[in-house]
Amino acid sequence: MKAIRRFTVRPVLPEPLRPLSELAHNLRWSWHAETRDLFQSVDPGAWSAAGCDPVRLLGRVRPARLAELAGDRRFRRRLNAVADDLDDYLTGERWYQAQPEGLPSAVAYFSPEFGITAALPQYSGGLGILAGDHLKAASDLGVPLVGVGLLYRHGYFRQTLSRDGWQQEHYPVLDPNELPLTQLAEADGTPARVALALPGGRALHARIWLAQVGRVPLLLLDSDVEENDLGARSVTDRLYGGGSEHRLLQEMLLGIGGVRAVRAYCRLTGHPEPEVFHTNEGHAGFLGLERIAELCARGTDFDAALESVRGGTVFTTHTPVPAGIDRFERDLIARHFGPDAELPGIETHRILALGMETYPGGEPNLFNMAVMGLRLAQRANGVSLLHGHVSREMFAGLWPGFDAEEVPITSVTNGVHAPTWVAPEVLRLGARKIGTQRAEDALAVGGSERWDSVADIPDQEIWELRRTLREQLVLEVRERLSASWRQRGAGSAELGWIESVLDPDVLTIGFARRVPSYKRLTLMLRDRDRLRELLLHPERPVQLVVAGKAHPADDSGKRLVQELVRFADDARVRHRIVFLPDYGMAMAQRLYPGCDVWLNNPLRPLEACGTSGMKAALNGCLNLSVRDGWWDEWFRPDFGWAIPTADGAGTDAERRDDIEAAALYDLLEQRIAPRFYERGRGGLPDRWIQMVRQTLTLLGPKVLAGRMVREYVERLYAPAARSHRALTPDAAGELAGWKARVRDAWHGVSVDHVETTETTATAELGTTIGLRVRVGLGALTPEDVEVQAVSGRVDARDRITDATIVPLKPAGTPDLEGHRLYEGQLSLDRTGPYGCTVRILPAHRLLASAAEVGVVALPAEDAGEGAGMLLR
């Protein structure tokens, strides 16, 4: 019989065991080995059956066992020690508290998904895992972050395979009462709520769940409440599900409702109000509109409110392709905002103007969430050096007149939370060498001096560790493969072969990620005969462990999965290549450490960062990757291999795949497998072990989320907090008025004539050249602008590269026609073709970038001496 109502019955813990509840509800246990070991010792069988989830464990333990533990003095001592350690972690000073004054009192971090632990499945892939690692690293560093997201009742989806290898999706219902969550409550004990107005007089209500991620509170909004009608209740049903209106409502709830949830949390707990709001991808962009509406409700006009909000906002873009950005029809946005819906105090056309693609190459009737995110943030970044370059190119239309390299989008390369992703065996080895505290600091905070001790670990210990991790992966794969085949309908008599799947002494390559076409899951199948030869080589065999989910609506991605599965089902090779369904955090935490090589072969430059290889590297796994994302930035032959790319404009997609697949096979056959199986005098693969050592020593400190969060604090959060404080209502009004005046008058700004003291076409290195420039400022004054000389090497089309910028100074008073003279000097500090030009930019003390206003004046072709200078 099926139950007509469901309850969650919570255990009553004996008084001496009460700290177990706090430990279970702080997700620090997901990256703190001693806490997990403590829970496992409560009941090893129940721990395994509960999926290593402390909340579920405590719901399964027999009362008799709890009574036994309450009387066990050794267990109580362990429990108190772990509880005291958590208290020290939550209350002690950490990196952030030791920094100079002036940092933000709090930062609100908004993301559509968070991958904290498999016990809280609210993620689909890299964006969510990155957001989870950001929160954990912020907690370790003591950064006062507040996370904001949505609670999806069905999560993303669980993946199984049909008998013929087709992906099947399953959406189990998640009960928040069975998750490591608590409801945010008002002072009278009633649940805290936020509400949004919908067209037609309807409303969207949501309760607020709290997940405690170490020191960081994560607020998750849930629309499955009785006050909502059926449609509104389903808004937070699935991550990245539904049509355009469904996605719009999710993003309105995340952004607008999320700000309201932060305000409620701060009001109820006394947490400092955030000075900085970090928008992680465009999905949360509406948070800026809500903050503008708050200021307008206090009497600030829209333009001043916009400047104030921009000053304290950081926007991070994660996509390198326009197709990866949410875009909505103009009419849909207009229907959900304005007098009859949400944010009635803001005129609809002002909202539309923030997101419309009103630039060359844009779709003028589409509302672009990333464009709105950029227009609402004074600071923006991509997630690797290469991705920063790609983003500046992609969004250059928002800053007409500026070279792509001057588009105000910087980059902070992603990192990964080492305590989450480093295998316990790796951590224990490090702790034996340098002590537990130093090992934990090395993983959380970084610093190369802490990682240099890897050089002292004997080769034998490194190789034994790698073999142990590989063996654990083999056992895990066999268990998961057996479960998958049973789900596909196989009986026990058909599965005897699984006992011989993979070999703990064979070179093991991992490939696991989402399955959009650009990640090229099946590039390895390009020449199947050659791949079989690699897998079955008599002296130097290779084995592959593959996993990945295609989006439920992506049939082309599902076909790629099926193609890979069918190849892996072949009896000739199935002991050497496996596809594991339902890729997620629990699988990944075994997969990364157990592989010798991590494979990544996206179409360059479509991988924004790609952090799976970072997690593998922290466990001594070597990277084999196309030079895309982070690997383009940090690749060195000391610790991995780069797959050559054929990304020239004249190469079609099919030929490109053929060329790059052949390069992949060549690397495996000629360099990687021979090095793995090569043995030195002591019987060990000395050169391989040296690469593992270099990976840990040189890459380890770079790929940490701690390094990433420190960069965000120093380069983005701290400047944003300073801007937030400077942009008081009066200052924001002044800046808004100045921008309006400058834009209105800019048609009168011109570079009229350029003269140089160098009259020949050549000059010697070190020569100093004088510049005299006549400009027209129209209704503006010298205080409103900066006149600059831009110089550097020039390419074949006379474009200045690697530019040096020198401000020019006004000389004298305006002439009778109102023109002004500016002067300055250039030092020719580089040889070869060299050029310079002049430009005029708006200048104001409250601008974060000279490109912020979006206007620039350049010389006309007849401005004199070729509008600048060109030396060859």
TrEMBL record:
Keywords: Allosteric enzyme, Carbohydrate metabolism, Glycosyltransferase, Pyridoxal phosphate, Transferase. Its cofactor is pyridoxal 5'-phosphate. The modification N6-(pyridoxal phosphate)lysine is found at K615. It is an enzyme of class 2 (transferase). Coiled coil: none annotated. It comes from the Bacteria. The keyword Transferase applies. Residues 13-120 form the DUF3417 domain. GO terms for molecular function: glycogen phosphorylase activity; pyridoxal phosphate binding. The keyword Transferase applies. Its EC number is 2.4.1.1. It catalyses: [(1->4)-alpha-D-glucosyl](n) + phosphate = [(1->4)-alpha-D-glucosyl](n-1) + alpha-D-glucose 1-phosphate. One of its GO terms (biological process) is carbohydrate metabolic process. PANTHER family: GLYCOGEN PHOSPHORYLASE. NCBIfam families: more_P_ylases. Belongs to the glycogen phosphorylase family. Phosphorylase is an important allosteric enzyme in carbohydrate metabolism. Enzymes from different sources differ in their regulatory mechanisms and in their natural substrates. However, all known phosphorylases share catalytic and structural properties. This is glycogen phosphorylase.
